[in-house]
Design brief:
277 residues; alpha+beta; Jelly Rolls; Arc Repressor Mutant, subunit A; 3 domains; 5-stranded antiparallel β-sheet; 4-stranded antiparallel β-sheet; 11 helices; 48% helix; 18% strand
């Protein structure tokens, strides 16, 4: 990930206590196995299968024997910048989260699924995740963290806003089509359209029936088909990675849903047309 965020898996062979100084970061801990806790000032919070812990100050993390966890952290500056982007308003005070959340809560579980997917992808030894994918996953994690974990700006994030005009949706789609092979983030779409993030998403739902992210996916799948048909890549894996898909199974399912056949079949048709056996 970038210097704005980090993720890791923690496991020790014995009980241990770690001290973390106060930093300009937000950290969330998810239990994988065993028992552990985090002390914030005079309060101590258990890191459990049904309780993740969020911190933004000096902490002490206690590992009992066999405790394992995954941790995700964001820099304060990057997370607050994302919050301003999503709400379209300047912050009126420091961002503060509830110290505990239930990973099984419907909203929080959506965020946890994105995080689990990210950890699964980056841990694959045989595949190097493209920078394009890493950047977009990082942006998705930030936004989902803000929306899914209760904080003092949750009500503002949930507010409705007026939609962008159809011409602005056209402008955004033109930008996406011209930059499909680069990371697409909401900040760019706001700059292009002059609308807030909520206005953009609402306008896409109302005028297109899909989200900007779904449009990005359709454009990239179209380019994937073109690459498979024209010989710009020799394998399905190569095409998937070039078009921003690191999960090959998901890429194949979405490709089949859009074009009615698996990408491997498209590749076979091309090879047969070129006289290969």
């Amino acid at each position: 990930m970038s210097s704005d965020s980090a993720a890791w898996f923690c496991s020790y062979a014995m009980p241990i206590t770690l001290q973390f100084p106060e930093e300009s970061i937000y950290r969330i801990q998810f239990n994988c196995r065993g028992k552990g806790s985090t002390a914030i000032g005079q309060n101590e919070y258990a890191v459990l299968p049904d309780q993740a812990v969020i911190t933004h100050s000096a902490t002490q993390i206690n590992f009992e024997d066999g405790f394992e966890q995954t941790v995700l952290r964001f820099s304060q500056a990057s997370l607050e910048k994302k919050l301003v982007t999503l709400t379209g308003r300047a912050l009126t005070g420091p961002l503060a989260f509830c110290h505990t959340v239930n990973p099984n809560d419907p909203k929080t579980s959506a965020f946890k699924r994105i995080f689990d997917f990210f950890m699964h992808e980056v841990s694959k030894p045989a595949i190097e995740v493209p920078d394009l994918v890493l950047c977009e996953l990082e942006q998705a994690l930030m936004a989902s963290f803000l929306y899914s974990c209760p904080n003092n700006y949750s009500a503002l994030l949930a507010m409705q806003s007026a939609g962008a005009a159809p011409s602005q949706v056209d402008l955004i789609e033109d930008y996406i089509e011209s930059n499909w092979d680069k990371p697409i983030n909401i900040e760019d779409l706001i700059t292009i359209s002059g609308c807030s993030a909520r206005s953009i998403y609402r306008a896409f739902r109302q005028s297109r029936g899909y989200s900007p992210r779904m449009f990005v996916r359709r454009v990239r799948l179209g380019h994937a088909q073109e690459m498979l048909l024209t010989g710009h890549a020799s394998t399905v894996t190569e095409v998937a990675l070039m078009c921003g898909f690191s999960d090959l199974g998901r890429f194949s399912r979405r490709y089949q849903h859009m074009f009615g056949e698996l990408p491997s079949h498209t590749l076979k048709h091309r090879d047969k047309g070129n006289g290969r056996k």
